[in-house]
Amino acid sequence: MQQFVEASTPGIRLWTEQRGSADAPPLLLVMGAQATGVGWPEPLVDALAAHHRVIRYDHRDTGRSSWPFEERPYRIADLAEDVVAVLDGLGIERAHIVGLSLGGMLAQLALADHPDRWISATLMGTSALSTTPYTRPDGTTVPADELPGIAPEVLEMWARPVEDHGPQAEVERRIAHWRVLAGDQLPFDADFFRALEHRVIEHTGHYRVGTAHGRADHSGLLRSDALAENEVPTLVIAAPAEPVFPPPHPQHLAQSVGNARLVEIPGMGHALPPAVHAPLATAILRHTGAVPPTP
Predict the structure, then answer these.
(1) In whole angstroms, what is the distance from residue 109 CA to residue 105 CA?
(2) Cβ distance 181 to 244 under 8 Å?
(3) Structure pTM?
(4) Buried b / exposed e across 242-263, counting CB within 10 Å, b at 16+?
(5) Residues of the chain with pLDDT > 70: what percent?
(6) Largest CA distance in the chain
(7) pLDDT tens sequence across 123-156
(8) What is the radius of gyration, based on Cα positions, of the chain?
(9) Which is nearest to 72 in space by CA: 30, 11, 31?
(10) Measured torsion, CA atoms of residues 149, 271, 6, 284, in degrees rounded to the nearest 10
């Protein structure tokens, strides 16, 4: 079921989709920067929807939601308030939340600022909104701002200007982007990501590349104390091939967020190829209590 809800800023609409039984525990999926809700792969959504009322949505300036940034600039923190606005618009009091990349940061903000709205949280492909130092296995510590940065090949791709050479060329550019984000531990499935991007373009209605989230105000995002005091059961997904927030970012995140634990998905990078759908769904569903934990 698809419907529009009002964002946290009046006059801005957010596209939402619900899948699964309306009586099942709600689970909200929060995508990354400039990514639409249909960026969540269908097999993964279906696996989660077998046990949950799964909600996914388009951020502002993506997909079928309003594209207001040029006339009404906003903060990243406003995108986090949109997370709660989706629940409000759908009449949901509390939900499980799963956030990827920027979505993982928005989920941390939602945990810190609205802890009463969440049953559980799953964070992946993201970094801690915390100044808490990372403690290595040997007991030594590393300041949070000295953890490894984004891989050079990712930065190089992000630095390239995006030129309009037509829809097919844009799809191929996005596939090349996914190839870098996926890391080097699993075979790359170009056909899967090609089909994904065709679906995104069809859903959005155009192939223009959004840049609003990169230009939005990123200030005021740290939540060190509130995250340390978190009581919502939180799962951190460790992706060993992650090129954007490489290890030990997941380990640091699990240390920085109270009531958090870590599960590694072998071979996973900063993308969701078919090889990770089943283990990722299993990890999330065990965390939400929808399926029994490993004996």
Answers:
(1) 6
(2) yes
(3) 0.97
(4) bbbbbebbbbbbbbbbeebeeb
(5) 99
(6) 54
(7) 999 999 999 999 999 999 999 999 999 999 999 9
(8) 18
(9) 11
(10) -100
